[in-house]
Design a protein that fits this description.
Elements lengths: L3 E4 L11 H10 L2 E7 H11 L1 H9 L3 E6 L2 E8 L5 E8 L3 E2 L3 E2 L2 H12 L3 H14 L2 E2 L1 H4 L5 H9 L3 H15 L1 H5 L5 E6 L2 E6 L3 H8 L12 H21 L2 E3 L2 H10 L5 H16 L6 H6 L5 H9 L2 H8 L7 H10 L9 H15 L5 H17 L3 H13 L3
Parallel strand pairs: 1-2, 1-11, 2-3, 3-8
Antiparallel strand pairs: 4-5, 6-7, 9-10
């Protein structure tokens, strides 16, 4: 059920990584892939911490790829005042004050933004250079046009362009979005894309800037088009890694407007995780526990180290099964020990503990550890992890 997933939820506006969601994903999925551009890499290092980031890589909990290029929109305004836009893939090759820089020098400069301690920063850089391949998203796309070219072709679907623009307005300026009968389409010219619409951006941004400062972003034609390009990029990455995709609410809303079939498995599994946490963990969630600062990522890594058997149990659940149902089945399944008479079980437990313990304290120790040995005799069950380490973590012990 929970095999492989590509983790991409870094907010495009705040640039903050959702480390709580990363933790939740790590607990349930066998393989977690992180494909991060340089800015996303900085966000993850800040959110997780350099030592835990390295630890996750060393322990095989995450596999990391660094995307050398980023996707964006280039905008030009002609003499007539009409804006034209083009989809581009770009990369940083140097610095105004330093000139051209090597790939490693660029990475080092970025890592030092997230890790002020230079010794730690060098350790992180060394680990990323050793273990994280550097890729270019526009070259990973097998289509000869690249991601930018395919995203450009997406705009031929007028319904998609309009529904995507509507999804973004619903997400960021819901009051304004409800007040208009949106019209949005694009015209392709020799100089680029021209957006035709009835959006009053000044009015929309009055609502938008109540939560997002103008210095961070404003809604305009380039804003909408860049999100369409990003959504296509996420699709290609997910296909490249043959994985489910967990991404930002922004990209989710765009994919749902046109490519909802790509999210069927992820949505189903996300609902299974939510049901599990609602019913088994009494509404507590790992994501909120970390994002509220009740636990650190270092605390979570200790829990993750104890979760191997639990994750192995999840991997065996079929795609059409229900997580909560299968959990209860496994937790209440009868073993051969359950079929033995109770007196025999008790005698076996206390005899074995007594033979291992010191003669003077054997019976006392046996009474204290009978439940533990009972678990050993009956074999591991998923509730042993959930009722033990997981609930202890959630309860703040």
């Amino acid at each position: 059920m929970f095999e492989s997933i590509l983790f991409r939820p870094v907010d495009s506006l705040s640039r903050a990584a959702d480390v709580g969601l990363l933790a939740e994903t790590l607990l349930f999925y066998q393989q977690v892939i992180i494909a991060a551009d340089r800015g996303q890499l900085v966000s993850l290092l800040k959110g997780i911490g350099p030592d835990d980031f390295i630890g996750l890589m060393d322990d095989g909990h995450i596999s990391v790829s660094v995307l050398e290029d980023s996707l964006g929109v280039s905008t030009n305004t002609g003499r007539s005042g009409i804006e034209t836009h083009n989809f581009i893939a770009f990369e940083v090759s140097g610095h105004i004050s330093k000139g051209n820089m090597s790939r490693e020098e660029i990475l080092q400069e970025l890592i030092e933004k997230a890790v002020p301690d230079k010794v730690q920063a060098k350790r992180v850089l060394k680990k990323i250079v050793e273990k994280a391949p550097v890729l270019k998203i526009n070259q990973m796309c097998r289509h000869k046009k690249g991601v930018t070219g395919v995203a450009y072709d997406d705009l031929d679907n007028e319904r998609y362009a309009k529904s995507a623009a509507k999804a973004l307005l619903d997400l960021y300026v819901p009051n304004y979005s409800q007040s208009i009968d949106l019209q949005f389409r694009v015209v392709k010219t020799d100089n680029g894309i021209v957006a035709m619409h009835n959006i009053d951006y000044a009015l929309a941004n009055k609502e938008f800037h109540r939560s997002i400062p103008p210095s961070v972003a404003s809604i305009n034609n380039a804003f909408i088009l860049s999100r369409l390009l990003s959504a296509r990029g996420e699709m290609f990455l997910s296909a490249h890694y043959l994985s489910e995709l967990v991404t930002s609410p922004e990209v989710d809303s765009l994919l749902e407007s046109q490519f909802d079939y790509l999210l069927i498995k992820r949505d189903r599994n996300a609902n299974e995780i939510k049901s599990f946490q609602d019913l088994i963990l009494k509404g507590n969630s790992i994501r909120n526990t970390l994002n509220k600062g009740e636990k650190t990522f270092s605390d979570f890594r200790q829990l993750l180290d104890q979760a191997k058997k639990f994750k192995g149990h999840l991997e065996k659940i079929g795609p059409d099964e229900k997580l909560v149902t299968e959990y209860y089945k496994a937790a209440t399944a009868e073993t051969w020990v359950d079929r033995l008479p109770e007196k025999i079980i008790r005698f076996s437990i206390f005899s074995l503990i007594g033979s291992l313990a010191h003669p003077l304290i054997g019976f006392t120790a046996g009474a204290a550890d009978a439940l533990l040995l009972d678990k050993v005799l009956k074999g591991w069950k998923p509730n042993h992890f959930v009722e033990g380490p997981l609930k202890k973590f959630m309860d703040g012990d």
